[in-house]
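User: Sequence recovery, please. Input:
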């Protein structure tokens, strides 16, 4: 038996094809040319780390509280 007679079954569509027409896909499946699915370029995108540090850090100002008898129209 020569290699021209070797047959295989596409793991996606189930049709019998010559073994030379089947290809191993990135998912691990052995598929025919019609069912072959190229890996999407978005699968290779890697995240970029964010810089979370504050550029010019400064201490918070001291809290200033008003009492009820100090509130007047001028203080608002």
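Assistant: Recovered sequence (76 residues):
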């Amino acid at each position: 038996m020569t290699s021209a007679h070797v047959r295989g079954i596409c793991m996606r569509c189930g049709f019998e094809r010559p073994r030379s027409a089947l290809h191993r896909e990135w998912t691990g499946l052995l598929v025919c040319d019609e069912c072959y699915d190229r890996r999407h370029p978005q699968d290779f995108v890697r995240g970029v780390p964010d810089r979370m540090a504050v550029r010019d850090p400064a201490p918070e100002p001291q809290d200033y509280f008003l009492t009820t008898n100090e509130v007047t129209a001028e203080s608002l």
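The CA atoms of residues 9 and 34 lie 13 Å apart.
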